Hints:
Blueprint: E1 24-31, E2 34-41, H1 46-57, E3 67-73, E4 78-81, E5 92-98, E6 114-119, H2 132-149, E7 153-158, H3 160-163, E8 177-181, H4 189-196, E9 203-209, H5 211-224, E10 228-237, H6 241-253, E11 257-259, H7 261-269, H8 277-284
Helix pairs in contact: 2-7, 2-8, 5-6, 7-8
Amino acid sequence: MTHASVRIHTAPGIMADGHSNNNHVPVLLSFSAFSRPSSVPVGSGYEVLIQKFLSLYGRQIDLHRKFMIQLYSDEWAQYIDLPKGFIISEKCKLRFVPLETDVTILGNLIPATTVFFCCDMQERFRPAIKYFGDIISVGQRLLQGARILGIPVIVSEQYPKGLGSTVQEMDLTGARLVFPKTKFSMVLPEAEAALADLPGVRSVVLFGVETHVCIQQTALDLLARGFEVHMVADSTSSRSMMDRMFALDRMARTGIIVTTSESVLLQLVGDKEHPKFKEIQNIIKASAPESGLLSKV
Length: 297
């Protein structure tokens, strides 16, 4: 027997097994040489536990590295990996384990391990977002490149009932998933399920609006799950350029790679002899608009 029940999450409202207090479960959270007692709500899964670990050990955790959570097993007298979809309903001991990452590959983009996230490029944002026409133009370049290179695209729409659908200029043909949301982050069950169906994906190329809200929260959530995030600076904006500037700075400081559309597309091709190089070259032949996105305020 283990210290905790590990269950596949099939329905809400999981009850505790007699070991919880006020609908919370005591947990011992260990990282490196440290261990701290804490508690989490009954039925907590991966996302809640990651946030709890980050709140306790955030300054010690290198977010450039991937990581996993393990559960102590009495049966095996050691920590074991938690399966996908687990929830916790009993007192337990958990360990946060950074995985070894080859630092020489950090920042590299390979089509086979990359997915594009297009965030909330919707009609109602057009009059409010600075240089919206320019970021749409660049976003369309990215979508074209994704189709040429066979890279999956996941698209979110923030409250489409009130804010409308993705703008017509953005051709979503072939998108793996287009889903509505009300949460600011794109990292929701629909997107996580789509990612789970893409084994081997390591890098997420992220673009859309607003830089300091949905983009930033999505990037941080992806980073916390071990993905390498490439944020496309010339295809993201906000209503306020000051908000945009500070969000870009914060993301860069947390290990998110702030890059440009041309850099992303050429990195994915990697070689003039790539069979798709000429098609990508046609996309970037005219430079992406710079507009006022280079302004600091």
